[in-house]
């Protein structure tokens, strides 16, 4: 029996014809649906692993004697072969052997490729997403065996921490599109291929068992998995099943500034002012305006909130896969598969924070850029926080693929899939929070000094403790209740996809045409204690703070402490000596144990706080911000592939056209504010009162033609040049297409915010140009240079403007309330251009080699830090990067060192707290370099051991705002060590 490839169904024809078909043309769809190369003794290009159309590897007879199939070198050779023969720009990472992918995380492997960088989760340091040629997140489409995967996050991108790398067969990154698959990614299309039973006939078993240890967490946690594959009935029926359980524990120290807000100071607020009184105002009609030193006219940025916390995260993931293949004849192949994943993440957080308001700051010192580097704020409260965050993400994708070979030249393919992703389907609480502390009469005349750069220092508290007494920093006799935040989020994303293709091939010409239907329905709803205002039920910090609200917390609930010495390695700065680790469950239980304030008098209860009235339990109320988005996309496409000679040199031309039409129906619930009231027990807290909610529904749509042209010329057998032109699009995230304005019930003084969706958003559009030179100068070695240009229009930007809403009055100023409203709009155009350089070298049969690459990018729309408009714009994600992997692979022993560097880049517009008068403030990620080591040893042909060390030099992750000394976050997530054994039979 013969195997199937997308380029041709291999029927009972001559071996020479088989080899010609295997070496013939390629497409992205082929790799998407083709079986990966993962068997230990399998020859690259063999009949059982025919790669898909257009990405074929060299003739099997020519390659069999030279290619090392398993290990690092075998994997690199397979990757090189696909890159060499593909019509477009493609980079590939293949499994080194059954059950042996190069990295434990898919994104960690992808960052080894030219032009690809990773985005790390600050909490865990895990690679969470990728950026390709400067385009991250939603600009990159991730497919599973050629199919869209649902994501309950609401974005287009896949969180790679939810995708296990164990038992993955191959990763392919397509930087130029194939119109028969998709043109919905300006960055790249990433296809993850899983193994199937016909990859290797007979019986195959792979087992992995091991564990990992993060140095800060100090807990060894397990990983165990197994894969079984077997073919039956004369190799006409096969079944493959795999399952793996993975756990990662991580302890992370963090220092944060939740937002650098831009605004204007009055001269009386600055250091050295001799003004007798200080009443900052921007209202020219007010009495205070008559005194020039009160006029807010001096531009400056200040910290909205400063603090530190420690996070302990337990990440558990279960991945399972079942694949069945049936080939009743040489002309029919049916594949049915099911991929399941379940990830549970629980995080315990303990920290502190201080809140600041610009009009209350005094003795302010500004640097030459306007950054507030020192100040004092009288009466500053101190909050100690404890939180337990929990999420469950469950995703299942089932698909069926039928291939029919009608004649030796004509074939058909039908593919259907259904994917469902659910966030917290069990209705769990997403976050339980305890917030305690002191303020009011015990408020501190506190300041924060910025003494260095965000790359190596964090701000320093210059006073702290009750009334500035540092010795009483954690004095339990004055610590009382503040706020109690509880949230529960449930999202659901459902994707239905159908695809049908017909392909005809004759000699050196082939044509493929078809259509696709994809329906994506995303819905979300949340519940929290903000809507009913129960979060403020015991605000005020208790009697010692003298604000009339709150109750003292028993000392036994505040007994657990966390020392803060050596908090962030390599960083200068100082923190108070310890944190309080308060359990939010015990805190809430204590407050609820006080009774029902509606039937008894409870001193410290915030009377009249809540609607409906607080009856003694912190109930969650349904958030009216719930929404439902349904997106339907219809596509038709055609692609032709011509192979021949030009001036005696092998030449290939691939041309295609894709038409896409998208219809969007968006619904939600809207309401308008009618008034704002202050808390009777805490002057920093505000409550917004609303009109009844009303249902809002809108419909919109768009359609585009998306052409693509790839040309490749083989000047010699080893020297190739290629050029590509295409048009691609990236759709807006589903979660920004809501038709309603969302205003939070609970607000903070001086920080009124609102967010609005825009269901009429059009997609990003890009014309893409690539030109490459590739030199395959030796076995398993090559050097390439690839230049690219992307002309992108219709950028979706987060516009922000200050405005009044429904004429409500701000009770803290007596003036119309000014909200900072953030909403995404279609905006400007920009060009991104760059060059990728890649070099792979294996030194003969010595076992030594390396793989290195570097990417240099730039844009005509860089960030302008002097632009103070509320609609400032720049291209995000752009950063120079470089990767180097050096290895030794011989006689069953492997060792690998990987170095990954990424320069500073603009990550996004917007910060955790973004109430700046100058619109959405930027978030920059600082330059980072990480070194990882791994090694394995084949004890026997069936048994091997492995070890891995990640982040060997204890690199931290840090971000900053508009200027480099405006630290936003710094995470120290430590090193991780992994070890275990593998069996394969």
TrEMBL record:
<dbReference type="Pfam" id="PF07715">
    <property type="entry name" value="Plug"/>
</dbReference>
<keyword id="KW-0998">Cell outer membrane</keyword>
<dbReference type="InterPro" id="IPR039426">
    <property type="entry name" value="TonB-dep_rcpt-like"/>
</dbReference>
<keyword id="KW-0798">TonB box</keyword>
<keyword id="KW-0812">Transmembrane</keyword>
<dbReference type="GO" id="GO:0009279">
    <property type="term" value="C:cell outer membrane"/>
</dbReference>
<protein>
    <submittedName>
        <fullName>TonB-dependent receptor</fullName>
    </submittedName>
</protein>
<dbReference type="Pfam" id="PF00593">
    <property type="entry name" value="TonB_dep_Rec_b-barrel"/>
</dbReference>
<dbReference type="InterPro" id="IPR010104">
    <property type="entry name" value="TonB_rcpt_bac"/>
</dbReference>
<dbReference type="InterPro" id="IPR000531">
    <property type="entry name" value="Beta-barrel_TonB"/>
</dbReference>
<dbReference type="InterPro" id="IPR012910">
    <property type="entry name" value="Plug_dom"/>
</dbReference>
<keyword id="KW-0675">Receptor</keyword>
<keyword id="KW-0472">Membrane</keyword>
<dbReference type="InterPro" id="IPR036942">
    <property type="entry name" value="Beta-barrel_TonB_sf"/>
</dbReference>
<keyword id="KW-0813">Transport</keyword>
<comment type="similarity">
    <text>Belongs to the TonB-dependent receptor family.</text>
</comment>
<dbReference type="InterPro" id="IPR037066">
    <property type="entry name" value="Plug_dom_sf"/>
</dbReference>
<feature type="domain" description="TonB-dependent receptor plug">
    <location>
        <begin position="83"/>
        <end position="188"/>
    </location>
</feature>
<feature type="domain" description="TonB-dependent receptor-like beta-barrel">
    <location>
        <begin position="624"/>
        <end position="952"/>
    </location>
</feature>
<keyword id="KW-1134">Transmembrane beta strand</keyword>
């Amino acid at each position: 029996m013969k195997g199937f490839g997308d380029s041709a169904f291999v029927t009972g024809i001559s071996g020479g014809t088989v080899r010609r078909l295997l070496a013939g043309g390629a497409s992205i769809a082929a790799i998407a649906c083709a079986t990966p190369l993962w068997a230990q003794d399998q020859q690259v290009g063999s009949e059982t692993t025919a790669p898909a159309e257009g990405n074929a590897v060299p003739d099997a007879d020519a390659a069999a004697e030279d290619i090392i199939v398993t290990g690092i070198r075998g994997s690199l050779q397979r990757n090189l072969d696909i890159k060499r023969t593909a019509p477009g720009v493609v980079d590939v990472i293949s499994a080194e052997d059954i059950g042996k992918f190069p990295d434990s995380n898919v994104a960690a492997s992808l960052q080894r490729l030219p032009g690809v960088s990773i985005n790390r989760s600050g909490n865990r340091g895990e690679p969470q997403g990728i950026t390709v040629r400067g385009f991250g997140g939603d600009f990159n489409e991730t497919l599973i065996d050629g199919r869209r995967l649902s994501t309950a996050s609401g974005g287009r991108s896949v969180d790679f921490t939810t995708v296990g790398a164990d038992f993955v067969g191959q990763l392919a990154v397509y930087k130029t599109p194939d119109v028969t698959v998709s043109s919905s990614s300006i960055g790249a299309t990433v296809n993850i291929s899983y193994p199937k039973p016909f990859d290797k006939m007979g019986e195959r078993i792979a087992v992995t068992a091991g564990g990992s240890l993060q140095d800060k967490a100090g807990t060894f946690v397990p990983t165990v998995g197994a894969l079984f594959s077997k073919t039956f009935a004369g190799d006409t029926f096969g079944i493959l099943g795999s399952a793996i359980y993975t756990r990662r524990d991580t302890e992370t120290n963090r220092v944060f500034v939740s937002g650098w807000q831009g605004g204007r100071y009055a001269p009386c607020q600055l250091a050295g002012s001799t003004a007798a009184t200080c009443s900052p105002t921007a209202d020219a009609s007010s009495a205070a305006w008559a005194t020039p030193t009160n006029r807010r006219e001096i531009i400056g940025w200040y910290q909205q909130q400063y603090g530190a916390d420690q996070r302990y995260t337990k990440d558990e993931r279960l991945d399972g896969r079942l694949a069945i293949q049936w080939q009743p004849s040489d002309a029919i192949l049916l594949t049915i598969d099911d991929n399941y994943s379940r990830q549970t993440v629980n995080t315990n957080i303990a920290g502190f924070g201080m809140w600041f308001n610009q009009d209350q700051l005094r003795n302010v010192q500004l640097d030459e850029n306007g950054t507030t580097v020192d100040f004092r704020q009288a009466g500053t409260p101190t909050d100690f926080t404890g939180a337990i965050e929990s999420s469950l993400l469950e995703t299942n994708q089932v698909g069926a693929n039928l291939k029919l070979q009608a004649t030796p030249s004509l074939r058909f393919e039908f593919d259907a899939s259904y994917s469902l992703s659910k966030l917290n389907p069990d209705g769990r609480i997403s976050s339980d929070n305890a917030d305690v502390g002191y303020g009011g009469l015990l408020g501190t005349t506190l300041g924060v000094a910025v003494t260095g750069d965000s790359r190596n220092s964090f701000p320093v508290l210059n006073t702290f403790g009750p009334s500035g007494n540092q010795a009483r920093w954690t004095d339990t006799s004055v610590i009382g209740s503040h706020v109690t935040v509880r949230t529960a989020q449930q999202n659901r994303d459902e994707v239905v996809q159908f695809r049908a293709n017909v392909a005809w091939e004759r000699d050196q010409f082939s044509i493929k045409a078809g259509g696709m239907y994809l329906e994506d329905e995303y819905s979300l709803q949340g519940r929290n204690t903000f809507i009913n205002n129960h979060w403020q039920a015991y605000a005020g910090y208790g009697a010692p703070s003298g604000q009339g609200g709150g109750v003292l917390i028993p000392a036994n609930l505040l007994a657990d402490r966390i020392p803060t010495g050596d908090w962030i390695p390599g960083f200068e700065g100082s923190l108070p000596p310890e944190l309080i680790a308060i359990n939010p469950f015990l805190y809430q239980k204590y407050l609820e144990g006080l009774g029902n304030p509606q039937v008894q008098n409870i001193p410290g209860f915030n009377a009249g706080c809540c609607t409906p009235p607080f009856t003694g339990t912190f109930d969650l109320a349904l958030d009216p911000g719930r929404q439902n988005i349904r997106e339907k996309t219809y596509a038709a496409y055609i692609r032709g592939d011509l192979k021949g000679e030009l001036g005696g040199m092998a030449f290939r031309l691939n041309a295609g056209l894709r038409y896409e039409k998208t219809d969007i129906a968006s619904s939600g619930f809207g309401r308008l504010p009618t008034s704002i009231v202050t808390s009777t027990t805490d002057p920093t807290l505000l409550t917004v009162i609303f009109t009844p909610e009303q249902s809002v529904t809108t419909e919109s749509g768009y359609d585009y033609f998306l052409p693509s042209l790839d040309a490749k010329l083989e000047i010699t057998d080893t020297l190739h040049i290629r050029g590509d032109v295409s048009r691609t699009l990236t759709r807006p995230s589903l979660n920004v297409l809501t038709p309603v304005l969302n205003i939070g019930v609970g607000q903070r003084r001086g920080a009124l915010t609102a967010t609005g969706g825009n269901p009429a958003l059009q997609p990003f559009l890009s014309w893409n140009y690539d030109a490459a030179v590739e030199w395959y100068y030796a076995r398993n070695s090559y050097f390439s240079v690839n230049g690219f240009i992307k002309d992108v229009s219709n950028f979706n930007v987060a516009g922000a403007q200050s405005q009044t809403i429904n004429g409500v009055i701000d009770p803290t100023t007596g003036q119309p309330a000014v909200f900072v409203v953030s909403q995404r709009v279609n905006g400007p155009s920009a060009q991104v251009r760059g060059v990728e350089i890649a070099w792979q070298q294996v030194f003969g049969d010595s076992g030594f080699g390396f793989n290195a690459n570097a990417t240099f990018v730039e844009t005509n729309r860089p960030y302008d830090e002097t632009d103070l408009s509320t609609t400032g714009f720049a291209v995000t994600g752009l950063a120079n990067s470089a990767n180097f992997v050096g290895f030794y692979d011989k006689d069953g022993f492997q060792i690998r060192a990987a170095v990954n560097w990424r320069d500073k880049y603009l990550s996004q517009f917007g910060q955790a707290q973004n109430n700046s008068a100058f619109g959405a403030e930027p978030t920059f990620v600082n330059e980072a370099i990480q070194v990882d080591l791994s090694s394995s040893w084949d004890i026997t042909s069936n048994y091997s051991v492995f070890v891995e060390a990640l982040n060997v030099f204890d690199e931290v992750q840090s971000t900053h705002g508009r200027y480099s000394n405006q630290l936003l976050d710094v995470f120290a997530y430590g090193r991780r060590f992994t070890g275990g054994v593998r069996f394969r039979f």
